[in-house]
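Worked example 4.2. Below are the chains of a multi-component assembly; read each line carefully before continuing.
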Amino acid sequence: MSGALSSALPASAAPSARAGRPGVSRRVLPGFHLTLGFSLFYLCLIVLIPLSALVFKTSALSWEQFWAAVTAPRVMASYRLTFGASLIAALVNLVFGLLVAWVLVRYKFPGKRIVDALVDLPFALPTAVAGISLTALLAGNGWVGQYLEPMGIKLAFTPAGVVIALIFIGLPFVVRTVQPVLEDTEKELEEAATSLGATRLQTFTKVILPSIMPALLTGFAMAFARAIGEYGSVIFIAGNMPMISEITPLIIIGKLEQYDFAGATAVALVMLVISFAMLLVINALQAWQRRRGASA
Amino acid sequence: MSNSRTIRRAKAGTTESAWVRFTLIGLALAFMFLFLVLPLAAVATEALRKGAGAYLEALKEPDAWSAIRLTLITAAIAVPMNLVFGVAAAWAIAKFEFRGKALLTTLVDLPFAVSPVVAGLIYVLVFGAQGWFGPWLAAHDIKIIFAVPGIVLATIFVTFPFIARELIPLMQAQGTDEEQAAIVLGATGWQTFRRVTLPNIKWGLLYGVILCNARAMGEFGAVSVVSGHIRGQTNTMPLHVEVLYNEYQSVAAFAVASLLAILALVTLVIKSVIEWRHEREMKALADLPPERPVAS
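Applying the procedure described above to all two chains together yields the following C-alpha cells:
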C-alpha cells in the first residue's frame, strides 16, 4: 500500500516544486520543527496508527479466510449495489452539477445568491437528517411518494432510494469544483470561436468543455468516492434487505454487531484500499488541472 | 479583471438565446428544489406535524437534552484539537520546503476518503475489547469504546482535514515575505504569527472552523460504530434521531433533526457572509489606483 502511495508522489509533487522558490533561504521563519513535529505526531496518533490496526488485524486471517470473507455472496451483492448506485449518482451529479455551476456563473436571476449558498447544504446537513427527510418525502404517504406510487414507481426502501440519497450527498462536489474554473475561462476564446463561425453548441463542446474537463472529472471522482463510503443518509432510505438493498458499510456494521471482528475487518480493508485508490485518482486529476491552469 | 466594456462587447457572441437560458435556469432550479429545498421543508413539516406543543415537548425530553449536551461537548473538544493541528500543519507545509511534503498533504486529506464506518471500526480495533489496548484498558477500568472518549476520537478523525485543507492553499498563496520582514525587524515567532499571519488567514480559519464544527456535530456513521447507543449516555444528536426514528417516534425524531437542520442553515449563512466579505475585500484591493503600491 505504501508503494502505491509513493508512486503517486511525483504527480502531486511536481506543481508544488515549481511554485516553491529554491533561491529563498528557507529557515528564516521559526517553528518549522515544532509545527512539523506536532503535525506528524497528531497525524500518526489519530490517523495512521488506527488505520494500521486495520491492516495488522486483517493479516491475522489466512488468505483463504480473507478471500472467503470478502467474496461471500451477500458481500458481493453489497459491492454491486454500492458501486452501481455510487456510479449512477455521480453521473447524475456530473450532468446536473455542471448545469447548476453553468447557471450560477453565466446567468443572472433573482435569488441567485441564496441558490449559490444552498448548494453546500449537503455538506452542512447531518447525513442522518438527510436520510430521514428523504425517506419521509419518498415513502408512500410522502409529498413525492404519494404521486409516484400510483404510477408504480417505488423509490423508498429500494436500490433506487440509495441512488437518490447518494445524489443528495454528492451534489456540491461537481458544482464547487467546476464553478471557479468556469469563472476563469476567457470569453475571448468563445468570441474567437463564434467569429470563426462555430455555433453556440460547437463552442460549448469544443472550447468550453475541454477547458473545464479536469475540474469536471475531479468533481465526479470526489462525488463517487464520497458516495462509496456513505452510510448515514443511505441506511434510512435503503430498506437494508440482504442481497438487494444492503450497502457495503452496513455489511461491516452487521458483522460487528455479530462480533465477527475478522469479517468486518476484512471487508473494511477492501473499502480502505478502494478509498486509497480513489484518493490517488483525485490527486492525479487535480495535478492535471493545475498543469492545465499553469499552461493556459 | 476584464472591465465592463469588454464584457458588454463579448456578450453578443458568448451567450445563449433567451429560451435556452430560461430552460437551463429552470432545470437547475427544479433540480435544486427537489433535492435541497424539499428535504429541508419536510424536516420542518414533520417536526411540527402535531403542533408546536408536541415539538417543544420532544425537545424537553431528558434524553434529548443529554444528546444535545454530548454533541456540544464532542464538538468543543474535536474542533479546537483540529484547529491547533490545522494551523501547525499549514504553517509547516505552506511556509517551508521539505522532502515528503506532497505525501504529507495527501495524508492530511486521507480521513475524507475513508468511509465513516471504517473510521469508527479502526478505533474499535485499537481500543475495543478485542483490540490492541483492550485488555490493558479493561484492567485499568478505562472505557474508550462505547463511551465518550471513543465518540470524541471518531469525531476528531472524520473532521481531521477540514481546517488544515482550508489554510494550506491560503497560506501558500500568501507566501512568506511578510513573515520574513517581521522576523528581520525583530519580532518573535509568536508575535509574527499573531500580528502578521493571523490577520491574513482569519477568514479562511473561521471558514474551516464552522465547516469542521458542522461535521463534528452532525457525524453519524463513525460515531454510531463506537458509541454503543446507550440512551442518555452515549447518544449524540444524530444517533438520538436514529433511535427515535426506529421507535416510530416520528415527531420527536424530526424535532431533534430540526435542530441539526437549523445548525446547518446557520453554518451556510455564516459561510456565505464570510465569502461575501472576502469578495468585497478582494474587490476593494482591485479597485485601488494602480500607482499606489508602486509609490509606497
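Take a moment to check your reading of the output against the notes. DSSP finds 15 helices and no strands in chain B. Chain B touches chain A through 108 residues (CB under 8 Å).
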